[in-house]
Amino acid sequence: EVESPTTPYFVEAKKTLTVANLETKVGGSILVGAKGLFRDAASGILNKGPWPMKSGQGTQFTIHWVIVNYATDVSNVSLKTFLGGNIKLIGTPKSTIQSVPIYNENTQELRWDIPDIVATKGIVGTPVEAIFQVEALPSVANVGDDMTLIGKTELRATDDFTGESLTAEDIEVTTDKLDDPTVTSLEGTV
Question: The pTM is what?
Fold first, then answer.
């Protein structure tokens, strides 16, 4: 609303007044990171097995899914990935919230459904995170190669402010590109 005590000379009103309404909705953004570690003492999970990996012997890794949410509340958050060949889920997934990832043995899909995440979660305070443990059992066919622990991680959510669909993804986690500073990429081959 804008008001002015001045008026044009040909108008008999004592003031001019105009009213306008403008609404601009700015959407949020959400990010997901998939990190793989061989040595992960901070998570409280002890991974076992030979490093570098050996054919016919299992080696364990922890995978961290980390979600950072910007600006707006989101709902109906869903993450999914597929385990690589000769990879199996071991132990029970855990998370920083009540819901945890669920594994489907028949399809090798790991899925995490989250009802909602508040705005700025991970910017202010700790991010939403899930941790799960996998075991790679390399075969003779894997000798000389790295192994894919999990495929691409895909996230979908609904921005509660704009109603728009949000998506995010991260690349696959492979044994030669771990986020573990205690190992090298050369050690990631079987």
Answer: 0.85
